[in-house]
Amino acid sequence: MTISILIILLSVVSLCIAIYIKMWRTRSKILHDFAHHIRNPLSIIKINNEIALLHPNLPLDIKTTLQSNIDELDRASKIVNDLLK
C-alpha cells in the first residue's frame, strides 16, 4: 500500500468517526429534550392523582384506579429515565 492510499483511508475513517460523533451528540440532545418535555406532564399528572387519593370519602374503585394510574406513571417515568442512560 502506498502512503497516499493510507492517507486517503485515514481521512475517510476520520471523517466517519466525526460523523458518528455528531450523530451521537444530536441523538443525545433529542433524547434530553424529549425527556424534559415528557417528565413535566408525567409529574403533574402523578401529583394530581396523589392529591385525589387524599380525599377521605373516595370509593374503593376510584382509589384503585388512581393508584393504578400512579403505578403506570412511575413505570412511564422509569422508561423515560432509561432512555437517557
Automatic annotation (TrEMBL):
Protein name: Signal transduction histidine kinase dimerisation/phosphoacceptor domain-containing protein
CDD domains: HisKA (cd00082)
Lineage of the organism: Bacteria, Candidatus Yanofskyibacteriota
Gene Ontology MF: a single term: phosphorelay sensor kinase activity
Top-level taxon: Bacteria
Sequence ranges assigned to domain Signal transduction histidine kinase dimerisation/phosphoacceptor in this UniProt record: 27-84
InterPro entries hit by this protein: HisK_dim/P_dom, HisK_dim/P_sf
Pfam families: HisKA (PF00512)
